[in-house]
């Protein structure tokens, strides 16, 4: 399956610290996306990285992609309590249809 | 744009009843997706449409589930008859070449 699997399942940090979440997948992909979901809400698209890209930045977010290891990481720098949410990676293979992992639950303590 | 609009936000129904979930995608988006989210299974793709045509419904769990997209601005997901194990949050999403937008979901509880 090309479904991404996030690691860790849960992460608890203090405000101001950096949060790193990882995603591993099994088959080759065209794109990988990261989404955020606040409790009781829909998913919000954060960033898309293509298979020929190695790193992308968006504000406090940094995403890396290592296709040789079939893995990606999402780094949130200088975390805030408002970053508390679940974070999902979604892989897109030949069909370009995103398949989601189970997510990492991030809690940022003020 | 108001984004992807789903209704209702919450639905509680008795086992055996018919349930219809509704979705209005973003105007101009040519893909529409229905996902189901549970603690046990995470986010599962049920079906997706391209230009109102169902492309892949292999994720639809059983014949009790059906989805339609009669026009570019409306889609329904129907469960008939509903069962307690159908309890989940159902998300609709639409996309174009710029990316995906999810609705806020319908939380379905079948008792």
Q: Helix fraction of chain B?
A: under 10%
Helicity level of chain A: under 10%
Task: Label the overall shape of chain B.
Answer: globular
Q: Give me the Rg of chain B, rounded.
A: 13 Å
Profile the largest sheet of chain B.
7 strands, mixed
Give the count of helical stretches of chain B: 0
Largest sheet of chain A: 6 strands, mixed
Descriptive notes:
The complex is a heterodimer of chains A (110) and B (111). Chain A is mostly beta strands and 110 residues long. Chain A has no helices and eleven strands. In chain A, a hairpin with a 2-residue loop joins strand 6 and strand 7. The radius of gyration of chain A is 13 Å and the shape is globular. By secondary structure, chain B is mostly beta strands. Chain B has strands at residues 5-7, 10-13, 19-24, 31-38, 42-50, 53-56, 65-71, 74-79, 88-96, 99-102, 106-110. In chain B, strands 2, 4, 5, 6, 9, 10 and 11 form a seven-stranded mixed sheet that branches. A four-stranded antiparallel sheet of chain B has the order 1-3-8-7, with no helix packed on it. The model of chain B has no long low-confidence stretch (mean pLDDT 95).
Outline:
The complex is a heterodimer of chains A (110) and B (111). With 110 residues, chain A is an all-beta fold.
Keywords:
heterodimer; A: mainly beta; 5-stranded antiparallel sheet; globular; B: 111 residues; mainly beta; 7-stranded mixed sheet; 11 strands
């Amino acid at each position: 399956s090309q479904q991404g699997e996030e690691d860790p399942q849960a992460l608890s940090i203090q405000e101001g610290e950096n949060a790193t979440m990882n995603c591993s997948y099994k088959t080759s992909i065209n794109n990988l996306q990261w989404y955020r979901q606040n409790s009781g809400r829909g998913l919000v698209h954060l960033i898309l990285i293509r298979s020929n890209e190695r790193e992308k930045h968006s504000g406090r977010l940094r995403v890396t992609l290592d296709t040789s290891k079939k893995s990606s990481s999402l780094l949130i720098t200088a975390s805030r309590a408002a970053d508390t949410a679940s974070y999902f990676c979604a892989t897109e293979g030949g069909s370009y249809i995103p398949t989601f992992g189970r997510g990492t639950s991030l809690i940022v303590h003020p | 744009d108001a984004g992807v609009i789903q209704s209702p936000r919450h639905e509680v129904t008795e086992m055996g009843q018919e349930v219809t979930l509704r979705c209005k995608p973003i105007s101009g988006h040519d893909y529409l997706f229905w996902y189901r989210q549970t603690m046990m299974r995470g986010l599962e793709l049920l079906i997706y449409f391209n230009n109102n045509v169902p492309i892949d419904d292999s994720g639809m769990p059983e014949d009790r589930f059906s989805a339609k997209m009669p026009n570019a601005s409306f889609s329904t997901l129907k469960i008939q008859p509903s069962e307690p194990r159908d309890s989940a949050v159902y998300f609709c999403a639409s996309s174009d070449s710029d990316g995906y937008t999810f609705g806020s979901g319908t939380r379905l509880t079948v008792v």
